[in-house]
């Protein structure tokens, strides 16, 4: 079994109600449409519980319902800013254990790209920028983590990051617009 399948996300209690579990499942699988039965099988929630929660999620505007014949299909409403922020929280929860392995090396850790804006899909990687005086050691630590396959990791020394503004302004701007998730206390 691969490391990524064995990996358990921290703080599962944040998504403990049926409503939250179903929303998390749909947010984690934003590309598709799902039937009630598929949601039930994926979340191990009773049929009635899934039905009740999905109706509430649709009413709240977090999930879309599309009917085709007698079938109902549900998908997460990615245009809803609240859904995108929930996706960002879920992304942060996924990388939290990884952060603890590199914090002692880092000056700053920035989540950028689609994971920072909540527009990521299942195939998206997690873009992580680390400002550090020891990029090699940071990369070594990241590569041993179960999520390493999904991480697009960039580590730069502070002096190199400053020069990046002229060398690669598009990338520099993308990182600068990212979400600062950790900074060393001065």
From TrEMBL:
Biological source species: Candidatus Hakubella thermalkaliphila
Domain Polymerase beta nucleotidyltransferase residue range list: 106-185
CDD domains: HTH_ARSR, NT_KNTase_like
The name this protein goes by in its record: Polymerase beta nucleotidyltransferase domain-containing protein
InterPro entries hit by this protein: ArsR-like_HTH (IPR011991), NT_sf (IPR043519), Polbeta (IPR041633), WH-like_DNA-bd_sf (IPR036388), WH_DNA-bd_sf (IPR036390)
Matches recorded under Gene3D superfamilies: Beta Polymerase, domain 2, Winged helix-like DNA-binding domain superfamily/Winged helix DNA-binding domain
């Amino acid at each position: 079994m691969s490391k990524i399948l064995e990996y358990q996300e921290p703080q599962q209690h944040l998504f403990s109600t049926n409503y939250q579990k179903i929303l998390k499942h749909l947010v984690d699988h934003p590309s598709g449409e799902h039937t009630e039965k598929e949601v039930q099988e994926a979340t191990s929630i009773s049929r009635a519980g899934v039905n009740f929660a999905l109706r509430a999620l649709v009413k709240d505007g977090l999930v879309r319902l599309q009917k085709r014949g007698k079938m109902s299909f549900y998908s997460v409403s990615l245009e809803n800013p609240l859904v995108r922020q929930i996706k960002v929280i879920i992304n942060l929860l996924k990388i939290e254990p990884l952060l603890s392995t590199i914090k002692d090396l880092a000056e700053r850790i920035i989540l950028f790209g689609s994971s920072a804006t909540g527009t990521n899909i299942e195939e998206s990687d997690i873009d992580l920028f680390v400002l550090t005086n020891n990029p090699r050691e940071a990369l070594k630590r990241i590569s041993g983590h179960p999520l390493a396959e999904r991480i697009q990791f960039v580590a730069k020394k502070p002096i190199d990051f400053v020069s990046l503004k002229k060398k690669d302004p598009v990338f520099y701007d993308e990182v600068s617009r990212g979400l600062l998730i950790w900074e060393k206390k001065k």
